[in-house]
Design brief:
The protein has 227 residues and is of the alpha/beta class. It has a single domain, classed as 3-Layer(aba) Sandwich (Rossmann fold). 41% of the residues lie in helices and 25% in strands. α5 links the parallel β2 and β3. α3 packs parallel to α4. It binds S-adenosylmethionine. The site of S-adenosylmethionine has 19 residues, from β2. This is Methyltransferase domain-containing protein. Pfam families: Methyltransf_25. Keywords: Methyltransferase, Transferase. GO terms for molecular function: methyltransferase activity.
């Protein structure tokens, strides 16, 4: 039976619950991003969240740091217009959201902090490096990219060994076996995953001098990459 492609529009209303149940440790990761953000946000810069979905993470960063540095624009981008209703609750003089493709975005001020939390994995392989390069080139020295990605294991044996423990976690989080399988089928062909080593290498290739893994539950890992 054909399965429909996974749609963020379809999940928009309850996306925060969906991502917390789907990604083990997601709320801790979001909290870590908020805590790390303060180390990198600089005066006269932009803080951007690529693939911001409901805007909750960017709003939490904004709530914690707005006004602490002068002239900072907080900008959330997502290609999916269905998140607009949720953005409306957060918008303020220095926080805005745009329905926009991250590949076309040009920041009005240099970036001090970019977040890409499980977003790059949805881009075509040929679009990933140009976007990383553009983020790096638009960034102030000392600025950082917080990037979380679903990744592949470093060998087929480990991919096999680690996949079922991940499914078990989803079952424990309340998904049925059918929902787990349907989600995998609906995502087939939509994600372009890298191994962790390739993600790290590619962050260094575009120029990031310091790259550190700050969160991980296979297959989900987050890195901080500093210019
Ligand atoms: C897994 S979700 C990201 C989760 C989100 N960062 C969070 O923490 O809630 C991926 C998001 O990326 C968005 N997206 C995919 N391709 C995009 C692109 N080229 N530009 C901007 N957003 C994109 C999707 O619409 C989706 O909302």
């Amino acid at each position: 039976m054909p399965t429909k492609d996974f749609s963020f529009a379809h999940h928009a209303e309850r996306f925060n619950d969906h991502i917390s149940a789907s990604i083990p440790g997601y709320l801790e990761l979001a909290d870590l991003c908020v805590r790390l953000a303060g180390r990198f946000i600089q005066e006269d810069s932009s803080v951007i969240d690529l693939g911001c979905t409901t805007g909750r993470l960017l709003a939490a960063v904004h709530e914690r740091y707005s006004g602490r540095r002068k002239d900072v624009s907080y900008v959330g981008l997502d290609v999916e217009a269905q998140f607009r209703r949720q953005w409306a609750t957060y918008v303020s003089h220095d926080l805005r959201f745009e329905v926009r493709d991250a590949r076309q975005f040009k920041p009005d001020r240099p970036i001090s902090l970019a977040m890409s939390i499980f977003t790059l994995q949805f881009l075509k392989p040929s679009d990933k490096m140009p976007l990383l390069q553009r983020l790096y080139d638009s960034m102030l020295p000392g600025g950082a990219l917080l990037i979380a990605e679903k990744t592949l294991a470093s060998s087929s044996m480990l991919q096999d060994a680690l996949t079922f423990p991940y499914y078990d976690t989803k079952l424990r989080n309340g998904f049925s076996s059918k929902q787990v399988l349907d989600k995998e089928r609906s995502l087939r062909g939509q994600m372009t995953l890298w191994e962790r080593g390739k993600l790290e290498d590619n962050l260094r290739r575009v120029g990031f001098a310091e790259v550190e893994c700050v969160f991980g539950h296979f297959p989900f890992f987050c890195y901080v990459a500093v210019k």
